[in-house]
């Protein structure tokens, strides 16, 4: 370790090198062969290039008061952290003429500690608040050079580029923030005769302590921000959150839990400091298991008796452990089951996609059905849809749902005729855990619960067994369901739309359908006409399905005979059968022309009496005036009939365009189509 005497001896040699450097003209980029530390020599070169005068004695420039205040405010955090360490350093050098200085990133002194006479001491008279110690201002010095090379350095005596500083020794180290950005420097300066290598070590240790505190401050700020974010999430999230300690004692509740408990009688004791048994009742063992065995749990059903029924919630929980893996508590999340059901319905397809615009037709009967259904959609009354199979009853049900106030809720369809008799009850009303052999653990909600807030569509209601009709009637009257195996009632808010292809009044007379349930369902009755009774819509529907199913854009041309056949066919399967026929045509037709050969065999071979009569051979022109006029009338009518069929084919069944091409009204065209038996 070098002593002060050795440092002074080295300073004499350095002075000779400094004299030689400052009195000789050198190129800026030349390698100087001088016997000094390379950091000092590099700094001298920078000062030479910056045209710093080495032999001029002058007071350092300083910041004006405004700039000084701006600098101090900008660096207030660094100053506050560094001050205690500066005081500790000064206590070591107090009374020795040394000063402890803190500078900003440009070398301006922000804080300084020293003896009372430091401003009168010629060695330290340039150390004052706002003074600049950059290399461009003060030449080579520990502060300015440390900021340039971003490393600790000690500059003693003639190692300073400016001769006025040869009487002092400086030891400085740069200060960085946690991200590695340069903030400033810490320096100890005094008489060069008191120079010692330990001084630089003390400065380095102090800067490392300062940077450690900056890192701690940063992490504390990050923790505070994170804590505030978590607190905001805890207080504003839509789910209830309960925090418990390792003994199952409640430590914190968020506002949603208090809202949940406000409606539950006898739950006022659930608050911080209470046991989880107050909240979970008999299911508190789940919490104990979580806290003892580190087992998480998910979607455990909890029911609260609120006087007029049960409120349902799902609970999920996970233990909280420390760094040693020891359980310190747990977090339980409480979620209203309606939110979960809404998500399940949304992603499982339990929502309506069809609207009244999807109902194709211009006939009076279908327009009347749409009109009544549109009015029914604005109400909350039960709706009964009656019509043959394939007429589109579910389209009407979805359209009513989507036009009404419950359009944002689920739309759940149940085919009562497709469910086994013994499963209808559990599907509609749900069941409790252990209700029967094979019952799912935790029970299962029924379709009424899943449809809460939306619409339940009961298709083929006429096929529901009598024993379940009693339960359905009770739910419709009281708006509550009892799960199978559970005595407690669950409130449900559901609109019911039913559909049937049977005459329910006849079923009532037969004794297979309850009269009281019939009148409960038949609040608004809508009859959907079969396709054969709205033949004027057949061509429109055919054209609609053809365009919809023609995914390869083949743009089929349909022969007049095909149009005639589909219009006159009686369609026992109604719209569903027509759609299937069009799908077959699109799938199997080679080329673009659709002929009778592309129709299914049962449709191709179908020959009603009206077609047989219209296809009888034309007799030769008879004699006689009356017979002649009758024959000509028949020929004219046959030609007009063929013209209508051709135009219908060209316009793909569009009655309006066909009437416009013929120059007649739509009503006139309908009358002629009926006259020529183009439809029944």
Cα-to-Cα separation, first versus last residue: 119 Å
Domain module count: 4
Fraction in helix: 40-55%
Number of helices: 26
Question: Strand fraction band?
Answer: 15-25%
Radius of gyration: 47 Å
What class would the helix/strand composition place it in?
A: alpha/beta
Reading off the top of the CATH hierarchy, the class of the largest domain is best stated as Alpha Beta
CATH topology of the largest domain: Beta-Lactamase
Average predicted confidence as pLDDT:
83
Low-confidence stretches: 610-628
Mind explaining what this structure looks like?
The chain has 26 helices and 21 strands. The protein starts with a helix and ends in a 5-residue tail after the last helix. By secondary structure, it is an alpha/beta fold. Helix 19 (538-549) crosses helix 21 and helix 24 crosses helix 25. It folds into 4 domains: 4-218, GAF domain (Beta-Lactamase, 2-Layer Sandwich), CATH 3.30.450; 238-340, Beta-Lactamase (2-Layer Sandwich); 349-529, P-loop containing nucleotide triphosphate hydrolases (Rossmann fold), CATH 3.40.50; 535-675, Helicase, Ruva Protein, domain 3. It has a 5-stranded antiparallel beta sheet with strand order 2-1-5-4-3, with helices on both faces. Mean pLDDT is 83; it is low at 610-628.
